[in-house]
Every structure is written in C-alpha cells, then in structure tokens.
Design brief:
single chain; alpha/beta; Glycerol-3-phosphate (1)-acyltransferase; six-stranded mixed beta sheet; two-stranded parallel sheet; 10 helices; 8 strands; globular
Length: 299
C-alpha cells in the first residue's frame, strides 16, 4: 500500500499507473479493432467482440490493482453477491463524479458482462480512450437543447437511431447496458435550476432507458439499480487519485422490468410514456430516500 505517500505524490503515482495501463491495453485493443473494421461481417464480430471485451476486462482489473495499491478506501457494498455473469443487464445509477465509473467497473467487473455506457458525442475526442470506447461499440449520443429541438424536431431521431444501432450490436454478445438516467453529473446549481423534487438527485430522463428496452428488452434479465454515496462528499477525479476518498457506500438491487416496457412506443404513445416515466420516478424516489439513509454516520 502506498497510502503513506503525501497526497500529491500518491495522486501522481496513481495517474501514471492509470496512463501506462490504458496505453498498454489500448494498443492491443486497437490491433483487434482494426480487424473488425476491415472485415465488417457478423461472423467476424461474433469472434472479435468477445476478445475486445476480454481486453477491456483486463484493463479494468489492472485499474482495480492500482486502486488497491494507492488508495485506502473503506468499501461498504451490498447486493453484488446475487449478480450473475451470464446474460444481459440494463444498469442504472445516480451520477456525481467521474469516480462513479471507476467504482462501478471495480465492483461489477467479472460479476456481470462488461458495462457499456451511453456517452456524449464530444467524448469520442478524448485522447486514446475515446477511440477505445468507439472500438468497444459504446454508443455516442448528441445532446440537443430544447430550443434547438423546437427549431429542428427531426434531430430527436438522431439519438434514437444511435441507441437502436448500438443495441443491435449489443444483442450479439452478452452485455450490460449502463445508463446514468440523470444525463449529467449532479451539481447543486443544476439541482436548483431544475427545481428537482429529489433532495439528492437530478430529474431522471427516461428516453434512453425506454429505447434500450424497446430495442433489446427481451434479452435483459433485469434492471440493476445501483446507488453510490460518498459520505465525505463526492470527490473530483484528482481528489480520488490523491486518496481523498476515505469511504464509498454502494447498494445494488435487481428490479424486475415490466414485460410491456419491451414493446411499448415511448415516443409515439403518450399513455405508455407517462406510465414509463412514473415507473422511473418511483425508482428515483426510492433511491433518494435510500441516499438519505446511507448518508447517516455508520453505526
């Protein structure tokens, strides 16, 4: 353990380990991704995609290794023992920090199939890792403001089609489709601007979840609902690297997905849309109450 190092030095060591680990595994990942790009046939994808996912799984395992080496965090985790590696899952979680992704990957790696996130289109330009996300078929979504959508309503269809195309690829290999329903990280200013009815959460956005269920809902075993709490406050990524995340509390539960959610028309059926939103809002209310309980001092 390197937790005896001063925070600045510990953060620098952790960052270097992350960079070296990423460059090593991405070099291998890109070599196989080029084969998939050159031979875009389903039979080739069926063989190459498990290899790519295996490489990413090892990258995550090595990230967990340097986290154990450089971080001294208390993990309070419940609900992961019931997860199974086989099959497909839809995963939903509250979102506060980039650290959430490392927490999720650390806890879910090899417990369920690899997490595939819905990402903002701009993230494809992140050096190295943006190309890795592309090679692994992470769906990149464009964000359109309300004013833009009123002016160009046809652009609503872009994310729908991107989601459908991604889910068609996911249906070939067992996958965990990850979605942050809030759409962005929680910030007090965003919370206030939204007038969110939840004390600890932004309003959930149902569209991506509904589209994923419509595209491949018959494959999903269940919705894995994850709640992450940082009792000492949500850290920035640099604070996390420096060891300033003393405790992480995570609760995981599996929620049955109503059968008709896999066939309903979220965009065209107002009654179905209202019912789906009510279902998600009920989950969000339960999550908000759970966060209040988990934020209480241990013991």
């Amino acid at each position: 353990m390197l937790n005896f190092l001063p925070p600045l030095l510990r953060g620098s060591v952790a960052l270097l380990l992350l960079v070296f680990n990423t460059l090593f595994w991405c070099a291998l990942l890109f070599a196989f991704a080029l084969v998939k790009l050159a031979l875009p046939f389903q039979a080739v994808r069926a063989r190459i995609d498990p290899v790519l996912n295996g490489i990413a799984t090892r990258w995550i395992a090595c990230n967990s290794a340097w986290m154990r080496l450089t971080q001294h965090m208390e993990w309070d985790v419940g609900g992961v023992s019931d997860l199974r590696y086989e099959g497909w899952y839809l995963v939903n979680c509250n979102h506060q920090s980039w650290v959430d992704i490392f927490v999720l990957q650390h806890l879910m790696n090899r417990r369920i199939p690899m997490l595939k996130f819905f990402l903002k289109q701009q993230l494809i330009y992140v050096p190295v890792i943006g190309l890795a996300w592309w090679a692994l078929d992470f769906p990149f979504m464009k964000r359109h403001g309300k004013a833009e959508l009123r002016k160009h309503p046809e652009r609503r269809q872009q994310d729908r089609e991107a989601t459908r195309r991604a889910c068609e690829k996911f249906s070939l290999v067992p996958t965990s489709v990850m979605n942050f329903a809030e759409g962005t990280r929680f910030r007090p200013t965003k919370h206030l601007a939204q007038g969110s009815p939840y004390a600890n959460l932004l309003k959930p956005k149902a569209g991506a979840l509904a589209l994923a269920l419509n595209a491949m809902g018959d494959k999903f075993h269940s919705l894995i609902d994850v709640t992450i709490v940082y009792p000492c406050g949500a850290p920035t990524f640099w604070e996390f690297l420096c060891g300033k995340t003393p405790r992480v509390v995570v609760r995981v539960r599996q929620v049955p997905i109503p059968a008709d959610f896999c066939t309903g028309d979220y965009s065209g059926d107002g009654v179905f849309r209202a019912r789906f939103q009510q279902w998600l809002e009920a989950l969000w209310q339960e999550k908000d109450e759970q966060i209040n309980r988990l934020k209480l001092p241990a013991g």
